[in-house]
Write a structure and sequence with these properties.
Elements (H helix, E strand, L loop, with lengths): L4 H5 L2 E8 L21 E2 L21 E2 L6 E4 L2 E9 L5 H4 L3 E6 L8 E9 L7 E5 L11 H5 L27 H8 L9 E7 L3 H7 L5
Parallel strand pairs: 1-8, 5-7
Antiparallel strand pairs: 1-9, 2-3, 4-5, 5-8, 6-7, 6-9
Length: about 220
């Protein structure tokens, strides 16, 4: 089992939303937490890794979310990905690059599990909250997809929630479509399902992409 002792295994509950704003995540800056290195941020191609000091594309800079941070299916019941998170009592120092196993408890993905690494902070809504990074999931407050991919000013689809059907994934650049299709295939287009969750050790399949491991 991942995690040690009853406290680490204890399930908590929360809610999920979705977004993909193309912006560099908060855990891509240095000094956020005790980690081997910040989460990789990329140039506008989504592939070339930049210095942690590069300014975010959401603020006129050159650093964006790397393409490989989109979610993927491990099998029909388990997926991996990254998320922004807000957990009451937590902070950037405790949440950055931490991993959680989410078990979806409502909607069409009910019963499926997803392990996510926290690469960004979620706004303190007062509720435990995982904002899953899913291409085409809506740009939300900060739209770096227009400078990176020439997306519409409010992103692809609705600013909050994004596109509404699988065929609209074709609106996205080809590099981001696999994660968009994941939402409609593996995730069954679940709409902000609730979750139970617990902290787990980060899978190397995720940390090999993000480059961030908690010490």
């Amino acid at each position: 089992m991942l995690g040690i002792g009853n406290e680490a295994e204890a399930q908590q509950t929360g809610k999920t939303t979705r977004y993909w704003d193309c912006a560099k995540g908060s855990a891509s800056w240095t000094g956020k937490a005790s980690v081997t290195g910040p989460v990789k941020a990329c140039a506008s191609d989504g592939v070339t890794v930049l210095s942690p000091n590069a300014q975010s594309g959401a603020n006129g800079g050159t650093a964006f979310m790397c393409n490989n941070n989109q979610p993927w299916a491990v099998n029909d019941s388990l997926a991996y990905g990254v998320a922004a998170a807000y957990v009451p009592g937590g902070s950037e120092a405790t949440l950055s690059c931490a991993c959680y196993e989410l078990t979806f408890t409502s909607g069409s993905a009910n019963g499926k599990k997803m392990v996510v690494q926290v690469v960004n902070t979620g706004g303190p809504s007062g509720d435990t909250h995982f904002d899953l990074l899913i291409p085409g999931g809506g740009v939300g407050m900060f739209n770096a997809c227009t400078p990176q991919w020439n997306a519409p000013s409010s992103g692809w689809g609705a600013q909050y929630g994004g596109i509404s059907s699988r065929d609209q994934c074709s609106m996205l650049p080809s590099q981001l479509r696999p994660g968009c299709y994941w939402r409609f295939d593996w995730f069954k287009n679940a709409d902000n399902p609730t979750v139970s969750f617990k902290p787990v050790a980060c899978p190397t399949a995720i940390t090999n992409k993000t480059g961030c491991i908690r010490k």
